[in-house]
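Honest question from a wet-lab person: if I give you the sequences of every part of a complex, can you actually get the arrangement of the whole thing, not just the pieces? Trying it with mine:
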Amino acid sequence: MTRLDDVAREAGVSASTVSRALTRPGMVSEATRSRVLATAERLGYRHHPAARALATGRAGLLAFAVASLANPFHAPIIAGAQEAAEEAGSELIVVVTDGSAAREEALFERLADRVDGFAAVGPAAPAARLAEAARRLPLVTLNRRVRGVSSVVIDTPGGMAGLGAHLAALGHARVAYLGGPEGSWLDRRRLRELRRAMPDAEIAASGPYPPEFDAGTRAFDAVAASGCTAVVAYSSTVLLGLLHRMTMKGLRAPGDLSLACADDLSAAGLAMPDVTALRVPGAEAGRLAVERLLDLARSSRPGTPAHQTLGVTLLPRASTAAPGRGAGTGRRRGDRERARPVE
Amino acid sequence: MTRLDDVAREAGVSASTVSRALTRPGMVSEATRSRVLATAERLGYRHHPAARALATGRAGLLAFAVASLANPFHAPIIAGAQEAAEEAGSELIVVVTDGSAAREEALFERLADRVDGFAAVGPAAPAARLAEAARRLPLVTLNRRVRGVSSVVIDTPGGMAGLGAHLAALGHARVAYLGGPEGSWLDRRRLRELRRAMPDAEIAASGPYPPEFDAGTRAFDAVAASGCTAVVAYSSTVLLGLLHRMTMKGLRAPGDLSLACADDLSAAGLAMPDVTALRVPGAEAGRLAVERLLDLARSSRPGTPAHQTLGVTLLPRASTAAPGRGAGTGRRRGDRERARPVE
DNA sequence: TCCTATCGTGCAAGCGCTTGCAGCTCACCT
DNA sequence: AGGTGAGCTGCAAGCGCTTGCACGATAGGA
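Yes, you can. This is the full assembly:
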């Protein structure tokens, strides 16, 4: 492996100059800089991360915690985070918490003095612990806001306003909400906002449902018994399961039941049936989280935590329509696009 | 942060002794060792990874490449890998290749002198490049075997023997195979083995299908047109989509079509309908890959590459039965469990 | 023309840990 | 009793990079 010295010797300068040419462009003359860069390039020089980490105190690593990798919702978030990290010359260590606060804290503990920052999607730990952790290490929470901790939140609760209005306008008065993991900061807010958006409707919340297909099939019975005319699910995977069970029973969307969900995975390359959903900027959220983390790491001074909120947009599709009254009667009122049964 | 010196001073020994007490238990006397350990514990000493990496030349990091995080098939594999890495005191850097050989090589290049080893699930790069990479850095391929590179393979092709026999015994003579990504080492072999296991049946292969729900819905038409009585999909996500579309059309499994897939995700905590599948030991594969990687890293000598194959077992479930002749006729021959239509 | 900023570069001291080597202390053997 | 080896421990030299400081050169002002 070529080292700094090799480049220095070859370019006829000292190692310090090479180091500066590579990282502090303004500190060396243009002439030497270009010569050094060319030499480095020619010799295929790559800095030794450990040596740099030892000298600077920065590891060039970031930790990124998610509850599960089996949930495709996280895929674009991680992809965005990874891209941002790569651009900044850092690597991402993705860790899985299984949604357990204990495991989350254990992982933080384990990684705290090995990485330059820690990001967590929907962390389960109590707010006080998170705030404490943030004092020790750059910390960013995604989809959860905690006093004293920088955060990036995809505003699906805010999206409930539009979605609720949409359903209300269609005439739905009884809506089922299929909720996410217990104690989810975001999920509580989604439900609250949905209720606020549909003050005249009855919202029957059930859950918690894990973000799995089968949870949706199980949810069907509760939904069917509730007499609701529309369903809002926090996860499209759950909704897919529900849709499947419905279809099994000979019911269709939107004829028999209107369907909507709070995350649109088609943006993640995961096409799914034509379901009304919220467009969630997952990749952007991941990217912003990493950028914030790097900001925090750069200015070792804690500073005031920044909270960012990413808006979502409603994607009205074929799975929602005015409440119907029986199987297979999806077609009504001439709106062909909207009334086409969902597959 | 407490350093080695702090512990040394506190314990009344030199830093070298502390270092040895911590990593080379046999080299210090029992008395000093326990004293040092207790002191380290009391002061909350944790070694500085960068310093250790610089001194030893080992980074304590492993790279793990997968094509996509949106594919839940990878979740247990990564989980197993992570667990093994954690036990060994290493961290895992999970990277996403999007199935592109170019990105794969770029990532390898980028990480090669930053990690102690590189594992790749179903790598897309040509065999020669992989062999070359293996000469440079400990490398393990999963679900692909390459001459000169250690590998761990989940033997789904082998599982096709049992699955084929199962279908043949039920009387299926026309079977559709829904194949995976183009150029997949494993997928080619699965198809070959399925054909070998059902020499008297006609196997209609189609694809490539990405591992997504919607790919399954698209696949339905091809399957329906083919006149097959059974479907074998490489991915359960694809099969889920197919099942959904079938149901939409009023068809049921196994009455109208028997269904089976090559990966069983219920082991990954992802319950899905009662589909005949192969139990795939994903977590074990991930774990073994990491252990092999660490072996290779320890014995800097390349040694002979080791190839491990993990067997799969057939999980016959309700989605396969003797070929039927019409919708809703799933119930036959008194086998209630087997004949229950799949939901 | 001499003095003083300014700019560019090199020197050398680390960053915290590991490890070859040397030295010391005993126990054991002859 | 002296010699010898084994068993522990400490010394010090790095691992490859960054960076404060000093120094020399150059340009500008007086």
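Two things worth pointing out. Chain B touches chain A through 51 residues (CB under 8 Å). Residues 49 and 55 of chain B are 10 Å apart (CA to CA).
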